[in-house]
TrEMBL record:
Compositional bias annotation for Low complexity: 9-19
Disordered, as annotated region: 1-24
InterPro entries in UniProt: DUF397 (IPR007278)
Protein name: DUF397 domain-containing protein
Sequence ranges assigned to domain DUF397 in this UniProt record: 16-68
Annotated Pfam families: DUF397
Length: 75
């Protein structure tokens, strides 16, 4: 698995503790995240068995830092 590559939950992985953002709406337009020894995984909450994304811990840290500093603000 590589940063940003596809990931499918499988029986070889221990059960993950997925978290949904407190900013999520009630319409199901959400993503869920979990951290593990392989990095941070992200998936669509409407399709938990579908393909997700796996990021290294360092890549995720850079993304979170950029988000908090407003790097991705479009307005």
């Amino acid at each position: 698995m590589t940063d940003g590559g596809g990931w499918r939950p499988g029986s070889s992985r221990p059960p993950a503790s997925w978290r949904k953002s407190s900013y999520s709406d009630n319409l199901g337009n959400c993503v869920e995240v979990t951290a593990g020894p392989g990095g941070v995984a992200l998936r669509d909450s409407k399709n938990p068995r579908g393909q997700g994304l796996l990021f290294s811990a360092s890549t995720w840290h850079v993304f979170i830092h950029g988000t908090r500093s407003g790097e991705f603000d479009l307005g």
